[in-house]
Amino acid sequence: MTPDTDDRIPGPPEHTASATASSGALPPTANPYARTYVIGPFTVVEVLGEIDLATAGFLCEHLDAATARPGPDVLVDLRHVEFFDCSGLRELCRADSRARERGGRLRLVSDTPSLHRLLYASGLLRRFPPVARIPE
């Protein structure tokens, strides 16, 4: 099955056209676990549902695309995640390293205490200090 342009989740119309033109590529096709859109200077990867060994690949596709260009400023929105395990953490660390190698950054958006506890327990809270909402 070939993805159609209609399957993609765009950001606000005034930002999507410029982001697409400057990067030369469309974001990956939305799936049940992740979708990508652009808000101002940020590429937002919104994560949904349960991220585990079986679903982390769907997230990886979006993180790889978001960190592919030089100087990426990526926000990973985890506010709609119901479950997140070490498979998801591995993908976040991988994408963060890739963003830094390209002179950019990756930040987490989360207001969920359970995710904050997971980051703390895994020793990743300093690497990924979450912000409560997407910056203006």
Condensed summary:
By secondary structure, this protein is α/β, with parallel strands linked by helices.
Written description of the protein model:
The chain has 136 residues and is α/β, with parallel strands linked by helices. Helix content is 35%, strand content 24%. The protein is built from four helices and four strands; from the N terminus they run H-E-E-H-E-H-E-H. It has helices at 13-23, 56-66, 86-101, 113-121; strands at residues 34-39, 42-51, 73-84, 105-109. It has a four-stranded mixed β-sheet. Helix 2 (56-66) packs parallel to helix 3. The longest helix has 16 residues, at 86-101. The protein is globular.
Rg is 14 Å
* Strand tally: 4
Percent helix, as a range, is 25-40%
Average pLDDT figure:
85
Count the DSSP helices. Answer: 4
Which regions contain 5 or more consecutive residues with pLDDT less than 50? 1-24
> How far apart lie the N and C ends?
37 Å
Q: What portion of the residues fall into strands of 2 or more residues? A: 15-25%
Can you tell me the overall shape?
globular
Order of helices and strands: HEEHEHEH
Largest sheet: 4 strands, mixed
Overall structural class, as computed from helix and strand content, comes to: alpha/beta
> What spatial order of strands do you see in the largest sheet?
1-2-3-4
